[in-house]
């Protein structure tokens, strides 16, 4: 019987091969379910669109970098799918695209000598906050922009925005600061040239500082020197001359970035406008800070 089965199998007609493309397939029906439009939070919408994270969106909102339907927004709000979201570009130069909240204020202050710019001094010395308490300065919390050491005097900017104060201390901040230093002693041109190129003094290499046109005081043995610094601290200027056995008996900051002392007397202050350069600094500050989070 088994032999008969195999003989019939061998005599069966050969079945034709059917190409794979012609094989029947199950019909696939794709239906699109229309969901009713829902309002979502702006930060979530930006995250869903792969623009940035929610944390970054919050930082952009606080910096005023976002517009919704042409209106600048400062706080998170709900938007729909038809809302137009705009983000300020880094290349823009208009202050409207580098906004600072209207509540942020800035003052120019002539810091007198023998005051620190810190909130609390470990040596119990007087700070500028002790001095401001004796004046008609507004009773609000302020932060110094461009600190000066205890014995130095001159322009210090004050702001009620902690973020703005921190932005000026970041590595991308290169605001030019100008000083006038009165030095007891004679200064040779060779020393000035060495300071401008980065002097090696007392085993320490100092960063280049731009110093020019020493002006001798005819009434004394002092010499006035003008200096322009970006990265260097005025303490370094003092240190160089002290290592050369010359005493800096007065150091005055005359300008900080776009702001100038402009006739202020020691202890005086005046409210001023926020310059475009500070707008850009705050913009970069929020961008760098959001990337680190």
From TrEMBL:
Keyword annotations from UniProtKB, A to Z: Isomerase, RNA-binding
PROSITE patterns per record: S4
GO function term, MF aspect, one: RNA binding
SUPFAM superfamilies in alphabetical order: Alpha-L RNA-binding motif, Pseudouridine synthase
Membrane-crossing segments per the record: none
CDD domains (alphabetical): S4
Domain Pseudouridine synthase RsuA/RluA-like span(s) in chain numbering: 109-192
Domain (RNA-binding S4): residue spans on this chain: 51-85
Source taxon at top rank: Eukaryota
GO biological process: pseudouridine synthesis
InterPro entries: PsdUridine_s_RsuA/RluB/E/F_cat, PsdUridine_synth_cat_dom_sf, PsdUridine_synth_RsuA/RluA, RsuA_PseudoU_synthase, S4_RNA-bd, S4_RNA-bd_sf, TruA/RsuA/RluB/E/F_N
Pfam family, one: PseudoU_synth_2
Name recorded for this polypeptide: Uncharacterized protein
């Amino acid at each position: 019987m088994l032999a008969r089965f195999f003989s019939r199998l061998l005599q069966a007609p050969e079945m034709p091969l059917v190409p794979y493309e012609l094989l029947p397939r199950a019909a696939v029906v794709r239906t699109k379910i229309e969901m009713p439009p829902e309002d979502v939070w702006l930060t979530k919408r930006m995250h869903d669109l792969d623009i940035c994270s929610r944390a970054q969106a919050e930082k952009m909102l606080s910096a005023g970098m976002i517009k919704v339907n042409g209106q600048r927004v400062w706080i998170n709000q709900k938007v729909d799918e038809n809302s137009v979201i705009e983000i300020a570009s880094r290349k823009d130069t208009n202050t409207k695209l580098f906004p600072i909240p209207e509540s942020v204020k800035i003052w120019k202050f002539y810091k007198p000598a023998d005051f620190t710019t810190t909130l609390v001094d470990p040596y119990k010395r007087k700070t500028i906050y002790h001095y401001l308490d004796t004046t008609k300065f507004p009773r609000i919390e302020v932060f110094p922009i461009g600190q000066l050491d205890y014995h130095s005097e001159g322009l210090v900017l004050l702001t009620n925005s902690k973020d703005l104060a921190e932005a000026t201390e970041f590595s991308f901040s290169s605001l030019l600061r100008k000083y006038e230093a009165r030095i007891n002693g004679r200064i040779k041109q060779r020393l000035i040239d060495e300071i401008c190129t980065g002097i090696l003094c007392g085993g320490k290499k100092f960063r280049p500082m731009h110093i020019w046109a020493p002006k001798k005081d005819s009434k004394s043995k002092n010499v006035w020197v003008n200096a322009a610094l970006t990265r260097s601290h005025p303490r370094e200027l003092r240190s160089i001359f002290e290592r050369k056995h010359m005493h800096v008996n007065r150091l005055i900051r005359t300008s900080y970035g776009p702001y100038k002392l402009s006739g202020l007397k020691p202890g005086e202050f005046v409210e001023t406008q926020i310059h475009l350069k500070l707008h850009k600094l705050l913009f970069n500050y929020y961008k760098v800070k959001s990337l680190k989070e």
